[in-house]
What does this fold into?
Amino acid sequence: MGGVVLLLLLMLVACAGPGASRPAASPAASPATSPATPVVTGSPAESPAESPAESPPSPAESPAESPAESPAESPAESPGASASPSPPPAGVEGTLTIWVDELRAQYMTQVGQDFQTATGVPVAVHQLGFGDIRDQLQLRGPAGEGPDVIIGAHDWLGQLVENGLVEPLDLGTKTESFDPVALQAFTYDGQLYGVPYASEAIALYHNTDLVPEPPATWDELKQIAQQLQDDGTVEQGYILQTGPADPYHSYPFLTGHGGYIFARDEAGNYDPSDVGLDSEGGLAYARELDQMIKDGILRQDVSYDTMISLFTGGSSAMFMTGPWALAPIRESGVPFDVAPIPAMEEGARPFVGVQAFMVSAFAPNKTLAETFLTEYIATDETMAALFEVDPRPPTWLAQVEQVDDEQVLAFVESASTGDPMPAIPEMSAVWTDWTDALNLIFTQAQDPEQAMRDAAEGIRTTIGGSASPSP
Amino acid sequence: MTRTTKGAPRAGAPLSVWGLIGRLAALAVIDAVALAFAYGLVAGGLLVGAVVLLVITVVINLAFLVDRLYPLRWISPGLLLTVLMVVYPLLYTAYIAFTNYGQGHILSKQQVIDRLEGQTYSEAAALTWRAYRSPAGAFLLWLTDEAGNELLGDARTGQLQPIDRGDPQLGPIDPADGLPRRIGDHAKLARLEVIRYLTILEDVRLRTEFAGEPAEIRIESLDRADVGRQRYSYDAARDVLVDDRDDIEYQSREGFFVAPDGTRLTPGFADFIGPANFLRVATDPNIRGPFLGVFIWTFAFAALTVVLAFAVGLGLALLLNDRQLPAKGLFRTLSIIPYTIPGFISALVWVGLLNPLHGPINVMLADVIGFSPRWFSDGTLAKVALLMVNTWLGYPYMLLVSLGALQSIPSEVYEAAQIDGASPFQRFRSITFPLLLVALAPLLIGAFAFNFNNFTLIELVTEGGPPTPGAQTPAGQTDILISYSFRLAFASGRGQDYAFAAAISLFIFVIVAAITLFNFRLSRRVEELV
It folds into this structure.
């Protein structure tokens, strides 16, 4: 009889997480202690280090949009790998294992089937949250349980390369078929690590009923916004995410006033020892944001969702964000168009993000994976289909020519003028302090110049004081 | 369950043959399951896990077969759980704290050596290749260099030989690429056909020579093969990595292979670095600086949460316990409802409710008193908001336990007090509250210790914000110790720093352990007093 009790206890051990033994004082925490998946993702909530980076609802994770009704598990799973929902299955020698996000899962399954039919190599496509791919690769790759191929954003690259998780690639003759800016973004220490399929940058969305002609300069935009507000046509002429502040969307203001984050050398590499948030331009940027709050051009406490809903509800006439918002805004039916970012003193360049396929350093089938990418992904057909499921500025030059959607073309244009988001690991120090400075400015809690100086100083200390200075 | 007299048969002793058989059968099942798992663990390369599992299984068997170990039978599951869920993570955290595991130091040293030893360097021009496969599954590689020299490699033996175009073994020439369709019984594979065999072919190494030294030819991509030499080799005896191309010796130091001139090879590896992380917590002014403020707020947050939640919960419990209250069941159900909604959802709903622009609470406040508090922008308001949300989340639990405890207070005591002419307040103060406290003190301590580390709530509601003006570290005004250490560890200069986070969490562990110990003492004294 005791054995039965013990068996029950053992079963309890097996299925109950640590949550079972909690004092459970406040139910607020109980979900945290019993995560749904047995996989430890490294951080309970989205870690703050990455959240700013992804908070421009990191493209792929962006809220609504799912044109592809992506079935979680691909219908035609390969015979080699079993389909289990939570822990992404490991790569097996002889089977090509691919981790993709929700948007691309369905199409990639199809490509995998074609590949399997043509070559006899079984392909297993598994769907993960876009942001989870990086965490899971870091966790499972070294344990020998990782995939062969992943998709990812270029700003992960520094972390992935320095942790030894991705493999350099050689595109051979196909190199010329890609946008060089995109390839540059996926180059780290002189080596290419990705087959880019999409890029993104923010541009100006404007309500065509309220603002038929997009303003060409920032001063013009402010005038229009002021006018609309004075007339009582809209609540807010122009709207920017201010609470919590989001550095990503404010970057054009920084570059527009001549500021920078890290100085770049001739080759375009970022130098973490030269932080430019408190340069002359950086301070001017801080003053400008402060002034816009004071003038009522910017409104406090606007979250990303508020920003979108004010625009789709017609309460705001203009705002800037990336192509990931096209789908939800089109759905809302509000008449709008997309234009390049209005010029400021120094031009106003947005951040450019690039997404690509990468090969895991722990892939059981590296050459096969690389071949799959060069032969089956870097093709007109695949690139066209990838654009179809998620219309963002393509990086495949032949596909760029195919785009006839004026709004997407506006993003293409915007991306072509932007700066690739720094991929060096030091960037994680920047997001935190920069966000804090913006919050202090937007809430009018501190003198703008002082806030920006503090941020720059904080970044320098964290970079300098971290255990491993850059090699 | 009678173990009173020594002469009586032990309760654990077999009472019947069937009982014994049942017990043995249950043990057999447990053993079988454990063995199956252990086998899986060994197959997966987790030898330590298998050993631990087997030891545990042996202990279970002993506990149930040896009568002398009878008490262990009932304690052992709890002990095992403690070891698995508490002791093991604790020891592992302590171990991590002495390493540099984090950004740039994720891989083990052996993994890094394997990666570096896998790198080749090549001074020769690349080759193009085509594969031939025999029906038996043997492969030949036809290699062509830039000068047009042709070589044939045997995948199995690694032998390489020049090709004689006049060899009768060669089949008819394929006009598409100028190569023979067959070599003996080996048929040429078309470009796409090769893909199927790439996994095998990428492991093929063909021995050759380049510039008078031995080299290897290996397949790099579908079309290209490289003549390369292994670039790095690890000398385990001296713990150095030798770069054979440039003749540099890299010393293993602090998780990197470092050249004499200071150049480091990436990736780094996780390495033992001694007490450096602890020293950093203690000496780095940027980390020490905000520590006190965060510490005080942590304490205040945990204590106030418990006090407020307990006050609300107890108050409601007293109300619900009143005999004159109508529709008691309904009220009781309603007040328990917050408990049934997942805390994650409640916390996020509260964030929405308190939204300064559109939150219903703020809209209402603005309408009624003309003031819309900016909950998340002002330090004090953010703290108030946090306490409000946490009280909401915590009170139903307090209500539940208070209700239960109230039932257990005998009514005669109240009758006696009533006869003595005690006022309701006196009755509460002198009877209800002390008696309740005896029963609930351990729960309150538990709640305090829990909220001391209530990372989830902070992260969901304020994310530690608003930021502190002029702070050099990412310490927000509502950060508690655990969220502060999380921010330090994951928003440090170069991404995650797990080892540093482990060191800080050990500090927190010591603090919480001390508080708990103190609380236990205190509560024991309370119990003695009553």
